[in-house]
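A common beginner's mistake is to predict each chain separately and then try to dock the pieces by hand. The better habit, illustrated here, is to supply every component at once so that their relative placement is modeled jointly.
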Amino acid sequence: DAKTTQPTSMDCAEGRAANLPCNHSTISGNEYVYWYRQIHSQGPQYIIHGLKNNETNEMASLIITEDRKSSTLILPHATLRDTAVYYCIVRQHAGNNRKLIWGLGTSLAVNP
Amino acid sequence: NAGVTQTPKFRILKIGQSMTLQCTQDMNHNYMYWYRQDPGMGLKLIYYSVGAGITDKGEVPNGYNVSRSTTEDFPLRLELAAPSQTSVYFCASSYSRVMGVGNEQFFGPGTRLTVL
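With all components supplied together, the output reads:
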């Protein structure tokens, strides 16, 4: 299974862009990169996912390098409510297997 | 839609007691999952189900049992509670797509369980 590496913690000023990196150097060709976040004491929340192209939705943008060995989640205008733990996950792919392997994530603190 | 609901929100058990954590989703999702999250850690998969009547073990199934008699419900059973099962339990569901293109999981609010 492909593993991911993320910084333990990051800080960001309110209103600025938050760029959260993730390394997944052992990713295989059919594995997707998923991002979730978990606000304190709540269930995780899906943010975005991608295979090889950059993706954008109402919450964030996902930039995946051409070799797919790393990616960056971008929150364009961080707010205090974006303070959370952000998980980068490479989805295990084996037939009907839909399991996600969760690491420790990056704790993002958005400061006023 | 209520999404994924879990009951109870909190529970304290004594060692050796049993309980069932309830999980219901109203999104007609065929996949459902149970995770546990210990303090400061990521989520670990306990059991999952790909549809009514079908369940399979995840990473940490020991000490737990599940059943899936309907699409909506996926209860998690603890038969003999142990202190090591003190954790926050999350239920999730997702919609399976044939080519596996994106199946984001929707999570419930969690059940905080303490075993003393």
